[in-house]
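Q: Convert this sequence to structure tokens.
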Amino acid sequence: MTQNLTPNLIRFAKTLSILVVAGALAANAQAQGANQLSDNPVAQVRQAKSWEYGPFVNGGIGVGDRSNYKFFWGGFQLAKPLTPVVHAGIFSGQFELGGNIMPLWQAYTPAPHTEATTCIVNNQSQPCNLEVGGGTFYGVSLTPVIFRWNFLTRSKRFQPWFQGAGGLIYTTHKFPPNYLTTQTVNNQTVIIDGGTSVWNFTPQGGAGFHYFLRDKRSIDVGVNAVHISSASLGDRNPGVNASVQIQVGYTFWR
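A:
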């Protein structure tokens, strides 16, 4: 009977040894993977699909006929990756949905001035000088939809992205400044359809990056091209056809 038990015990011991070794190897591999993630803040937030939130400031200038416009904005952003990594060659990455709110929105335009143009007085065209509004404009802005693509990268600190977004601005005075509505031309009162709107829309697109200072903390830099238009909510819609905005923020991840 002892002879019959011996081979069974040997087989059991071999099987148990194999299981112990396999378990140790698996635990070691898992520990190595955890250590790799702990050393890679970019991979951490990518794998966890972490929420990101934090403050930012934004400065910009107008382009073309609005090159004398300056902008300064500040606010808070919130976003979350929604998909796993999608592999598409150099475009491999992860889709993220976000938004922001800017309680600080300022535009600096030329001071009120007169501008030479052509007026219609008594059904006749004649040259005239019209008063144009200007100065500093104050408001708030909401960007409820930001579609961002986070590129797949091997870097442990650097996470590049590009995005498209759409927002809304409310200003305390009609923006952008335009001809004042009621003016005097050759001692006659002329009504000008110069009113713009306190509501404007901001379709935009740009690119940028997160740079991780440590786990779940990053500095963020972005460059956006922003168009400002009232969609003809006012009498006139001169808008800001293009502006370049540079944004710098600090992001927390969880």
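The chain has a mean pLDDT of 86.
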